[in-house]
């Protein structure tokens, strides 16, 4: 923050002292001196074997960052609280948030073994499924004054942007030597990114330089010109990672997945330099497809090298101009792009509203295609996502299936975020609702998130997949998936299925479910507004204002927590949010640390918008 | 005591900047907006002083509609007469 804002009166020394003070308290140490004492403590008191000790020393040496690129927002309350916290932590070493947790890569199952009984939600099994889903999903209304202030602030930013553009035209804003041409770039979008997004650009596109496991290392950078350009300081910040889609914690540089992928790269190389239809099809790909089909309990599956392209390139081969698509309003950009490419007629229904879905379907069936004088559509397809990534809500699958059957429509379910993360066996939304996966016509998902790899799949009946094999652009023209990438998927999938002979997969799924429930309940107790379903590991925390997105991301970075903010183009103007993505790799201590910090900063920055009654009892993990 | 006050003011100034999105803009832009705010405020004040204040005396407990809107009162009188005639 300090690099952008000199007004808050924070000098470098002050902020350094603050961070240092916290560091002694919680074990996250930004400077070399305390590192030494920390490592001494670790080496003396922790029983680790020789290999682990080496790894630990490596990690500690790696964290040689001297000057933080971010400075803390120092306020009356935060200073007092931080001091109190430091005192508390000095006395109780047991609750330290410790970098040594980093050693337990790829299997955070220790906490689980002590408490194997998973506590279900209060409403579970007491209500009908629809009501239960409704009770677990929360979209709290924005307080009126916040809504007004958000719009006022947005208008102020616009006014300032126009003044700014009028007075100082940046070189990139006008094209030279192009008389008579129309402008190549969309005016409002470039205006928006220059004068709104640019001001808090340091909160996005942050380069990292480590594996995005439960912790990651951010590469520090500073800006001298309010976000027009950035300079690397050469330092790094180790942060707790609450931003990656690493739901099951398979993104790791060590462990079984990484080893097997490495072996595969050594035996099979990195690329086949050909598409699946030509010389790029191998036994390994076939095995992956069979495994995927078995994983979801359907007849067949087809895999692609890129998750986004799976949607964007396969939807056009399934749909044509005389098709009606009924699409949820919060669907991902890849689906929207695919639908536009297909030329089908798109009708949007309100987010997760079954009433609206039925209305759109009924109108589609009754009135037919208006472009062809009301002749019936050749097919109607409902497209929904399993977990909506910006809302954190879960699709009401059983009701959608009932509607689909009633109106004889097809159902395309995008499980990008839910596969692996949902259901007792990690098989996605169908598993979560205990629905037969064959009732969903087309199951789509990615390997990028839970499996810690890259690519996407489509699964369904044999007939569908055979059709895709001959008609899909992504299958015929895109290069086949790289061998180590395939190996990572196969190994992680087998681990989740328990075919490696261990309980690791099950434990990871359980750990994620527990983390999710705990984190969401604690956030509700803190009093911030979160969106979505109780069981979804994507947790959007509403902050509404652009400034607050910036302030929260910057402040959390000073406290060594990396999160992702989401603002206007991705969300409605009024609903800026911070998105936490939970992972099975997180331990309770890490979450507790994060929650404590969130509690503190939401007091300071005024994020406690929620007017719901708060649970006075401590939340059990 | 003074320190506390300054800290209090600083904190709420920061919160004010936050809710008006002025936190993330450059300093000269912040000054510009504040100048605009002040000008608007002064114009409102002047308007209240010069225009609205002259009406203030009319809104007393004893004032009737005739004091505030003489034309409306006259119209009502005319209408009343009309009723009387019929």
Automatic annotation (TrEMBL), chain A:
It comes from the Eukaryota. Keywords: Acyltransferase, Pyridoxal phosphate, Transferase. Its cofactor is pyridoxal 5'-phosphate. GO terms for biological process: ceramide biosynthetic process; imaginal disc development; sphingosine biosynthetic process. GO terms for cellular component: plasma membrane; serine palmitoyltransferase complex. Coiled coil: none annotated. It catalyses: L-serine + hexadecanoyl-CoA + H(+) = 3-oxosphinganine + CO2 + CoA. Its EC number is 2.3.1.50. GO terms for molecular function: pyridoxal phosphate binding; serine C-palmitoyltransferase activity. Residues 238-598 form the Aminotransferase class I/classII large domain. Belongs to the class-II pyridoxal-phosphate-dependent aminotransferase family. This is serine C-palmitoyltransferase. It comes from Drosophila willistoni (Fruit fly). The gene is Dwil\GK18137.
TrEMBL record, chain B:
GO terms for biological process: actomyosin contractile ring contraction; meiosis I cytokinesis; meiosis II cytokinesis; meiotic spindle organization; sphingolipid biosynthetic process. Coiled coil: none annotated. The chain crosses the membrane at residues 31-59. One of its GO terms (cellular component) is membrane. It comes from the Eukaryota. Keywords: Membrane, Transmembrane, Transmembrane helix. This is GK20383. It comes from Drosophila willistoni (Fruit fly). The lineage of its organism: Eukaryota, Metazoa, Ecdysozoa, Arthropoda, Hexapoda.
């Amino acid at each position: 923050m300090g690099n952008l804002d000199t007004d808050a009166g924070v000098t470098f020394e002050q902020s350094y002292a603050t961070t240092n003070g916290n560091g002694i308290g919680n074990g996250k140490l930004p400077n070399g001196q305390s590192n030494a004492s920390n490592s001494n403590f670790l080496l003396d008191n922790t029983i680790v074997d020789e290999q682990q000790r080496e790894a630990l020393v490596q990690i500690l040496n790696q964290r040689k960052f001297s000057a933080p690129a971010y400075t803390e927002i120092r306020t009356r309350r935060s200073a007092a609280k931080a001091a109190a916290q430091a005192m508390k932590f000095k006395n109780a070493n047991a609750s330290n948030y410790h970098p040594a947790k980093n050693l337990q890569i790829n299997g955070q199952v220790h906490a689980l073994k002590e408490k194997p009984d998973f506590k279900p939600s209060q409403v579970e099994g007491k209500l009908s499924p629809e009501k239960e889903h409704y009770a677990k999903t929360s979209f709290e209304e924005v307080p009126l004054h916040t809504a007004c202030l958000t719009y006022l602030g947005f208008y102020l930013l616009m006014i300032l942007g126009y003044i700014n553009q009028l007075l100082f035209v940046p070189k990139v804003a006008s094209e030279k030597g192009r008389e008579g041409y129309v402008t190549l770039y969309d005016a409002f979008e470039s205006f928006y990114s220059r004068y709104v997004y640019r001001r808090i650009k340091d909160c996005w596109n942050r380069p990292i330089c480590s594996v995005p496991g439960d912790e990651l290392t951010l590469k520090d950078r500073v800006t001298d010109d309010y976000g027009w350009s950035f300079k690397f300081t050469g330092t790094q910040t180790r942060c707790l990672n609450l931003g990656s889609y690493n739901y099951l914690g398979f993104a790791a540089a060590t462990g079984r997945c990484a080893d097997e992928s490495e072996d595969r790269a050594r035996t099979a190389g990195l690329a086949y330099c050909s598409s699946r239809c030509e010389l790029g099809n191998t036994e390994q790909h076939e095995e992956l497809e069979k495994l995927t089909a078995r994983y979801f309990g359907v007849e067949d599956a087809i895999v692609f090298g890129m998750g986004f392209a799976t949607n964007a390139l396969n939807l056009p081969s399934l749909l044509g101009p005389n098709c009606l698509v009924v699409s949820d309003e919060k669907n991902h950009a890849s689906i929207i792009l695919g639908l536009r490419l297909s030329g089908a007629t798109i009708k949007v229904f309100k987010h997760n509203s079954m009433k609206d879905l039925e209305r759109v379907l009924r109108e589609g069936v009754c009135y037919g295609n208006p472009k062809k004088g009301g002749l019936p559509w050749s097919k109607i397809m409902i497209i929904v996502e399993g977990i909506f990534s910006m809302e954190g809500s879960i699709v009401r699958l059983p009701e959608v299936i009932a509607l689909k059957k009633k109106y004889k429509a097809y159902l395309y379910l995008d499980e990008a975020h839910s596969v692996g993360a949902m259901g007792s066996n990690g098989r996605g939304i169908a598993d979560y609702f205990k629905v037969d996966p064959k009732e969903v016509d087309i199951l789509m998902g990615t390997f990028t998130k839970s499996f810690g790899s890259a690519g996407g799949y489509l699964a369904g009946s044999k007939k569908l997949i055979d059709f895709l094999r001959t008609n899909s652009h992504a299958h015929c023209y895109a290069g086949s998936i790289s061998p180590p990438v395939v190996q990572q998927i196969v190994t992680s999938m087998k681990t989740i299925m328990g075919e490696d002979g261990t309980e690791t997969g099950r434990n990871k799924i359980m750990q994620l479910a527990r983390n999710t429930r705990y984190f969401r309940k604690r956030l509700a107790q803190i009093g911030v507004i979160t969106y979505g379903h109780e069981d979804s590991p994507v947790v959007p925390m509403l902050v509404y204002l652009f400034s607050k997105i910036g302030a929260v991301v910057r402040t959390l970075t000073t406290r060594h927590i990396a999160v992702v903010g989401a603002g206007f183009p991705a969300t409605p103007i009024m609903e800026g949010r911070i998105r936490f993505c939970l992972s099975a790799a997180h331990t309770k201590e890490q979450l507790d640390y994060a929650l404590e910090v969130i509690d503190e900063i939401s007091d300071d920055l005024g994020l406690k918008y929620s007017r719901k009654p708060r649970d006075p009892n401590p939340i059990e993990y | 005591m003074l320190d506390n006050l300054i800290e209090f003011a600083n904190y709420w100034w920061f919160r004010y900047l936050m809710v008006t999105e002025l936190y993330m803009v450059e300093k000269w832009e912040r000054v510009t907006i504040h100048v605009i705010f002040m000008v608007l405020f002064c114009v409102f004040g002047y308007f209240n002083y010069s225009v609205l204040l002259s009406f203030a005396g009319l809104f007393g407990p004893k004032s009737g509609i005739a004091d505030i809107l003489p034309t409306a009162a006259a119209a009502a009188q005319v209408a009343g007469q009309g009723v009387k005639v019929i």
